[in-house]
Amino acid sequence: MKDVDQNFDALGCHILREYLILLFYD
User: Fold this and answer.
1) At the top level of its lineage, which domain of life is listed (predicted)?
2) Which one is predicted more confidently, 20 or 4?
3) Cα distance between residue 12 and residue 15, in whole Å
4) How far is CA 13 from the centre of its chain?
5) CA 4: distance to chain centroid?
6) For the residues of 1-26, what is the DSSP string, one character each?
7) Count of CA atoms in the C-beta half-sphere (13 A) of 16
8) What Rg do the C-alpha atoms of the chain give, in angstroms?
9) pLDDT band at 7 (very low <50, low <70, confident <90, very high)
10) Is the pLDDT of residue 8 over 80?
11) pTM, full prediction
12) Model confidence at 22, in pLDDT bands (50, 70, 90)?
């Protein structure tokens, strides 16, 4: 389960980064 949690955290950070990029470029 630890690997799954790590992947989920990485995905969450990626989505958050994409969201921030959209905000800054908007």
Assistant:
1) Bacteria
2) 20
3) 5
4) 2
5) 14
6) -HHHHHHHHHHHHHHHHHHHHHHHH-
7) 6
8) 11
9) confident
10) no
11) 0.46
12) very high
